[in-house]
Write a structure and sequence with these properties.
two-stranded parallel ribbon; globular; 2 domains; alpha/beta; 30% helix; Rossmann fold; AMP-binding_CS
Length: 217
C-alpha cells in the first residue's frame, strides 16, 4: 500500500546511499530489494560482535515516522536506550517465556513495532503477527495460535465488543492485554464478555520522554 510513496522518494534515497526493502518474497520495484529471501538465507548464529562495535545507549536504533505530537510530522529518533526501556515492559507486566503475543497493528507505528516486537525478546516468548486487523477472526486466531497475550489500541477493543456475541466468546487462552486508549465502558464490557483478562493499559508517545502503566487494573 506504500509502494507509490516509496517509488516517488526512491531516486533521492538512492542518491543518499539508502537501501530500501519490501518485507516480501519479491519486489515489484527496481532498486528495492525483497527482504524475506535474505532473512531465510541468513545463518542462525548470532551476528559477529564487530557489527555492534561502538553502539551505545545513545546510538540510533531506528527512525519512526510520527504524525507530529511535538510539531510537524517527522522521523523521530529511537535510541538503543529507549528501545530497551520499552522492551522492559514485558518484565514489568509479567510476560512469561511460554507466552504467545498477538498483534494486528502496523509495524511502522510505535504501538506495533516498539511494544510488540521487542517485548517478547527478553524472556524468549513468541510473537504472532497478522497483516490486518479482523474483528470477526480475532478470537479464532487466538485459539488457532494458542495466544496468551494480545496487544491493542482502544478502537480495536471497541470493535471486538461490537461484534455479535458468540457462545465461544470466553473459550480462549488469552490471559493478558497490553495497550492504550481503552475507554472505561469498553474496558468493563470487554471483561464482562471475554472473561478475566489482565489489562495493562499504558501511555507513551514516540517523541515523549516518559510513560505510564496502569498496573492495578
Amino acid at each position: 500500500e506504500l509502494r507509490e510513496a516509496v517509488e516517488e522518494a526512491l531516486p533521492e534515497l538512492e542518491r543518499d546511499g539508502v537501501r530500501v526493502f519490501y518485507l516480501s518474497a519479491a519486489s515489484p520495484t527496481p532498486g528495492v530489494e525483497a527482504l524475506l529471501p535474505a532473512i531465510e538465507a541468513a545463518p542462525a548464529e548470532p551476528p559477529p560482535a564487530r557489527h555492534r562495535a561502538g553502539v551505545t545507549a545513545d546510538s540510533t536504533a531506528m527512525f519512526i515516522y510520527t504524525s507530529g505530537t511535538t510539531g510537524l510530522p517527522k522521523a523521530a529518533v529511537i535510541t538503543e536506550l529507549k528501545l530497551l526501556m520499552v522492551a522492559s515492559m514485558g518484565r514489568i507486566c509479567g510476560l512469561r517465556p511460554d507466552d504467545v503475543v498477538y498483534t494486528t497493528l502496523p509495524l511502522y507505528h510505535s504501538a506495533g513495532l516498539l511494544v510488540t516486537v521487542p517485548v517478547p525478546c527478553p524472556p524468549g516468548a513468541t510473537c504472532v503477527l497478522r497483516p490486518k486487523f479482523s474483528a470477526s477472526q480475532f478470537w479464532d486466531d487466538c485459539r488457532r495460535y494458542n495466544v496468551s497475550v494480545i496487544q491493542y489500541v482502544g478502537e480495536l477493543m471497541r470493535y471486538l465488543c461490537n461484534t455479535p456475541e458468540r457462545p465461544d466468546d470466553r473459550e480462549h487462552g488469552v490471559r493478558m492485554a497490553l495497550g492504550n486508549g481503552m475507554r472505561a465502558e469498553v474496558w468493563k464490557e470487554f471483561l464482562r464478555r471475554f472473561g478475566p483478562v489482565a489489562i495493562w493499559e499504558f501511555y507513551g508517545a514516540t517523541e515523549g520522554n516518559a510513560g505510564f502503566i496502569n498496573y492495578t487494573g
